[in-house]
Amino acid sequence: DTGVSQDPRHKITKRGQNVTFRCDPISEHNRLYWYRQTLGQGPEFLTYFQNEAQLEKSRLLSDRFSAERPKGSFSTLEIQRTEQGDSAMYLCASSLLGYEQYFGPGTRLTVT
Amino acid sequence: RKEVEQDPGPFNVPEGATVAFNCTYSNSASQSFFWYRQDCRKEPKLLMSVYSSGNEDGRFTAQLNRASQYISLLIRDSKLSDSATYLCVVNIKAAGNKLTFGGGTRVLVKP
Description:
heterodimer, A: mainly beta, B: 6-stranded mixed beta sheet, 5-stranded antiparallel beta sheet, 0% helix
């Protein structure tokens, strides 16, 4: 499968714990995006990378959130001290030179 | 006001019928437009890009009206498998190509 992959697909954690998600983009894509989607809403932009550089962060990305793309390939999104409001689907997408974006299957986070 | 607004529906459509719905966007700097399809608890999948002259892909036709800042999607000869949420998406290149999504329009095709 040469599409975008995300791991894990589901994560249940207790409030206050840290979680980390991984995204592997389509191999030749240089841009990688993170979005968050809650029930009944469209996805909301969080941050994006061009190669290893993080070029933009949404104000939705509080200081408890950090994302990296250390070698310009896979990316990680870490949430520290999780809160119940962090429960959502976290979606990763990749594109080549900013053209059409293709999404991975998402990581569904539940904070109890 | 949301940047991209859609009627949430649901649009209940008899199998074989035609359904059409719009979305409006507020940022006149929007440069690219897309329709994504999302099935329940799945990721969004690109359905089609929307071009200025309008474009068709099989049973799906998309139109763009820049003057009035809306895009539309028409589905002809609806199939049961067309039941999904359709997300209207705009892209502002000056903003790093991040996608701005509408809340989605739910379509239910019934036998």
